[in-house]
Amino acid sequence: MTFWLLVALSCSSTPNTNGTSSEDPEAHGRLYVDDGVTPVDQNPRADQLQMTASAHHLTVTRVTSSDVISPGLCDTGLSTVIDIVRVYGVQTLTEVTVGGAVITSWSLNSDTDALTISNIGYDWCSNSPLDITWE
Questions:
Q1: Which pLDDT belongs to residue 37?
Q2: For residues 58 and 108, what is the distance between their CA atoms, to the nearest angstrom?
């Protein structure tokens, strides 16, 4: 089983130097994924992923800081693969790259402004970070 990652870009008003404001779509957050079996009070094997998105870019990185106590999911046999990413808030594009390589396995739904990228195969234990761009 692989994971889907859903990203909803929001608009935040940012003042420009001329006194007007612009809307820059963005999203960010952290995802906690554990083994799904071990009670939380028993420190389950888990990973945390940090995600940051802007108008044309998404980065996903596995958190490996000292505040993460768990040994992680990498050697458990459980899936650590993100295969599909859907980004809401994308209105137009002509090209998508994953890890710098142009890919063709994407679609854009103009009714929902949703970019769906498939066949990514990003394993957060083997590859870091995941970089996706669209233009």
A1: 87
A2: 16
Cα–Cα distance for residue pair 62/16, rounded to 1 Å: 34
- 3-class DSSP string for 77-132: CCCCEEEEEEEECCCCCCCEEECCEEECCEEEECCCCEEEECCCCEECCCCCCEEE
**pLDDT level of residue 21 (50, 70, 90 thresholds):** very low
Write the CA distances from 71 to 27, 51, 53, 62, integer angstroms.
Answer: 28, 20, 27, 13
The answer to whether the beta carbons of residues 25 and 35 sit under 8 Å apart is: no
Output the six-digit token pair for 134.
């669209």
Question: Using one digit for the tens of pLDDT, what is the confidence trace for 96-129?
Answer: 999 999 999 999 999 999 999 999 999 988 867 9
Burial of 37 (0-12, 13-18, 19+ CB in 10 A): exposed
Any idea of the CA torsion for 101, 57, 109, 30, to the nearest 10 degrees? 110
User: Which residue range is the domain that position 67 belongs to?
Assistant: 3-134
Residue 87 sits in a domain whose CATH number is 2.60.40.1180
Total structural domains within the chain: 1
